């Protein structure tokens, strides 16, 4: 049996289908999860995909964070279940405080959609084990609220503990502090990033590369290896 | 019914590009002398029943956990004068 990876759909989620597909391309089973349903259907891990859940009303991720499914996700994440938040999913994770900091409007105020070069800073998370530390990857980035902020003390802590998981390369697309594109929690099971690995798992689409597939093969190995 | 207002503002150290964009547009529109603009959110809550200490404590909790993200924002809770009393500062 392969691993079961849940993909949450909120009202306004856009990338749930691509994420399910990426999970299947990696060889795992994709399990759709519904925002109003507390039941996680005994999945081994959860992905919170991109989009504009609840219309980004109040703040991106602020209302989704209180949805029934998130109660279970928060409990399970604290107990060690791997959770990946992509784009809006990352915003949800900061709103839950499973990850520190917050996301704000891009410093140039424009929606951006581009292929973005990143450096994978750590492979000691559940979602990045298949990358080499320092590996450069290129995956799509598309958002308007992508500017990562946290206070200096939090930023220093993240750096010191090796919890900056991804950094923007060549250019900082949104004013994120210290070029941070994604971070991990201390345990390494909860990871969030703004760019979209699920759009770069097959050569036909996205960047024309498969640089994002490693997220999904990493978690599969992590889960299957743990059995 | 009483009204409670919650004002939410980005913390002073957080860059506010939307406020900056508004500020930069002002001279072009003929509004001089504004050196800085910060943009925030105002929530007007119509409260059933009396706005006593317990009600205010709940609203404070609501603001802290939901209306504001205290990682990036500060908030102020204010009880508004009832409609039949004259406001302290007229805006007519």
Molecular structure report:
The complex is a heterodimer of chains A (227) and B (92). With 227 residues, chain A is an alpha/beta fold. Chain A is built from 5 helices and 11 strands, in the order E-H-E-E-H-E-H-E-E-E-E-H-E-E-E-H. In chain A, the strands form 2 sheets. In chain A, strands 2-1-3-4-11-10-9-6-7 form a 9-stranded mixed beta sheet, with helices on both faces. In chain A, strands 5-8 form a two-stranded antiparallel sheet. Chain A has one domain (4-225): Class I glutamine amidotransferase (GATase) domain (Rossmann fold), CATH 3.40.50.880. Chain B is of the alpha+beta class. Chain B has one domain (2-79): Phosphoribosylformylglycinamidine synthase subunit PurS (Mth169, Chain: A), CATH 3.30.1280. Chain B is built from 2 helices and 3 strands, in the order βαβαβ. Chain B has helices spanning 17-28, 53-67, and strands spanning 2-10, 40-47, 73-79. Mean pLDDT of chain B is 89; it is low at 85-92. Chains A and B meet through loops of A and helix 1 of B. Chain A: Keywords: ATP-binding, Cytoplasm, Glutamine amidotransferase, Hydrolase, Ligase, Nucleotide-binding, Purine biosynthesis. Chain A: It comes from Streptomyces aurantiacus JA 4570. Chain A: It is found in: Cytoplasm. Chain A: One of its GO terms (cellular component) is cytoplasm.
SSE layout:
The complex is a heterodimer of chains A (227) and B (92).
Chain A: E1 4-9, H1 16-25, E2 29-34, E3 45-48, H2 68-78, E4 83-86, H3 88-96, E5 102-104, E6 112-120, E7 136-143, E8 147-149, H4 152-160, E9 164-168, E10 180-184, E11 190-193, H5 213-225
Parallel strand pairs in A: 1-2, 1-3, 3-4, 4-11
Antiparallel strand pairs in A: 5-8, 6-7, 6-9, 9-10, 10-11
Chain B: E1 2-10, H1 17-28, E2 40-47, H2 53-67, E3 73-79
Antiparallel strand pairs in B: 1-2, 1-3
Pfam families (chain B): PurS
GO molecular function, one term (chain B): ATP binding
Catalytic activity (chain B): N(2)-formyl-N(1)-(5-phospho-beta-D-ribosyl)glycinamide + L-glutamine + ATP + H2O = 2-formamido-N(1)-(5-O-phospho-beta-D-ribosyl)acetamidine + L-glutamate + ADP + phosphate + H(+)
